[in-house]
């Protein structure tokens, strides 16, 4: 039986319906369908259509364009997690002969490889993939436009290379690997490479008149890993939940967190929060959204997840332009998160006490700067400044007794507990910085030493 707390309030549902109704009307979309997930399940879906009594539902397929890239990134992370590749490997190691093999897999995932944004003419989204039968046809004569690793430059051909990498390592087609390793385990039964009824037709709406033109729907061939997929609002809600929580059948929570972590700086205009590994990251209304937008002739799509709020939203429309699917999806997240804030889980004490860790908690000083070290519910440590804005991080334990930073300034850095001869704790060593129980504790090994006269007042 569904708990009343799991359902959206009537006022929230009306606000969601109003938002998509405005979007469909002002965006002049033949149809638009949207869905919202909260705390791991779809809790609302709605649609609007230009055809009376024929609105789509959450099982109607639309093309999702570049949201496909996130699926491809999941496949690449699976290869990494199995030890078959390293993200810092040059492409040439696993896919020789491309002519751009010096770029790394990570750079391709984050669009920092310096490759061009599009294929050579003709426009690949509106022409059959058979026109580009080889990777050389996708990359063209000048595939590299910028030095690798220097800036974020979105590249569709880069994801063709990643799809070909998956095929080379797995020994099977990208489509087959995707179906076997992601779609089936996550029960995304209505996500396919070619449309399966019921599905929406793609339309172009005239910019100056209320008339429409059908758009072609081409098989993209080698470009499929960049934008081929068809999906539904219901399937994409399930995929959004996966991007928030992970699923051990596909990727762990730690690996999907890596997908959502910025890998390159934001665009120079500063409108976004960067790009992860196959995911876009935006800041809107004080919250961080991760996911992706997508478009192909005849279709626009948007998928955003607010992990902190436990809310995700999907918007799909069958118009080449008009509805801003990404902005609409972000608004749907905000409507739910603002009207019905997440109810936190009850506080509970730890099941057991680790005296050694407990003794580490409390105030520490880096020179004269004060920090608090806290034991977290997952048996990690968290170091945060006690005053003002300063460096802080979370840490996870390592088998040798050290701790590795997970985020912030000390991400990847090592924290060590340094004992005295008698076994008591002398100080903490964090990336060569000495943290002591008192400011410049003379009993600790403070770099540069501590003046023997100690602290003093104005009168010397």
- Proportion of strand residues: 15-25%
Q: What spatial form do the alpha-carbon principal axes imply? A: globular
State the total count of DSSP E strands: 18
Query: For the residues shown, what is the average pLDDT?
Result: 94
Please give the radius of gyration in angstroms.
Answer: 26 Å
Percent helix range: 10-25%
Q: How is the biggest beta sheet arranged?
A: 8 strands, antiparallel, barrel
Strand order, sheet with most strands: 11-12-13-14-15-16-17-18
Describe this structure in words.
This protein has 460 residues and is of the alpha+beta class. The protein has eleven helices and 18 strands. It has helices spanning 10-27, 67-81, 105-109, 135-139, 156-170, 174-183, 224-227, 233-245, 253-259, 325-339, 355-360; strands at residues 31-38, 41-49, 62-63, 203-205, 212-214, 230-231, 280-284, 287-296, 299-306, 311-317, 362-366, 369-375, 381-385, 393-397, 403-405, 414-419, 425-430, 433-436. The strands form four sheets. An eight-stranded antiparallel beta barrel has the order 11-12-13-14-15-16-17-18. A six-stranded antiparallel beta sheet has the order 2-1-10-9-8-7, sandwiched between helices. Strands 3-6 form a two-stranded antiparallel sheet. A hairpin with a 4-residue loop joins strand 9 and strand 10. Helix 1 runs antiparallel to helix 10 (325-339), helix 2 (67-81) packs across helix 6 (174-183) and helix 8 crosses helix 9 (253-259). The longest helix is centred in the first third of the chain and has 18 residues, at 10-27. It is globular.
